[in-house]
TrEMBL record:
Residues carrying the site annotation Increases basicity of active site His: D138
List of residues binding acetyl-CoA: H146
Highest classification ranks of the organism: Bacteria, Pseudomonadati, Pseudomonadota, Betaproteobacteria, Neisseriales
Entry keyword set: Acyltransferase, Repeat, Transferase
Organism: Formivibrio citricus
Keyword Acyltransferase among record annotations: yes
GO molecular function: acyltransferase activity
Membership in a protein family: Belongs to the transferase hexapeptide repeat family.
Name listed for the protein in its UniProt record: Sugar O-acyltransferase, sialic acid O-acetyltransferase NeuD family
Amino acid sequence: MNGIFVFGAGGHSKVILDVVEKQGLHQVVYLLDDHPESPGRMLRGVTVVGSKECFPIHKGKADTGLVAIGNNMVRRDVARWLHDNGAKFAVAIHPSACIGFNVALGCGTVLMAGAVVNPDTTVGEHVIINTCATVDHDCRIGSFVHIAPGTTLCGGVVVGDGTMIGAGSTVVPCVKIGAGVTIGAGATVICDIPDGMTVVGTPARPRIGKHE
């Protein structure tokens, strides 16, 4: 069993630790976290040894890891810093996840319990396919994407880098979603969405102001 590290010591990290433990391919040997009160804390018997700046000191124990941060941009920045300092990244797949044929998963990607990724789908790096989310056939998912619990992406959907697809959302077939998009929880996406837009509702429409 190979030793790995996990960056993050919050709620998302608890889920990642559970996935790694149940997958049975790796053992988490230390945690990193940038919160000033985190060093010395323990999760599932694993100690937070310090911030990411401590990685060069500890990478002799494990230089391969996972970034357990739900926020896409924070996850991206941490992953890039760790990569620039010599880190490599694993892929974690819960045993109850279902993966079809000819599926490609980028490094750092995690599939939570009940996730489904169907045939001929490509998933980028450091993607979260969360609990009971479904990504159907022939989808193209960019890097640093978060597909939240209970989301359904129908066949042929394209998702750009850094996009957040909120819990319980549905995206109809062959829709193209740009980079840096936020889709609100429970939305139904029936048409293409350009880069950087936030959409909410059924059908999903641009969110113009917080009271609209």
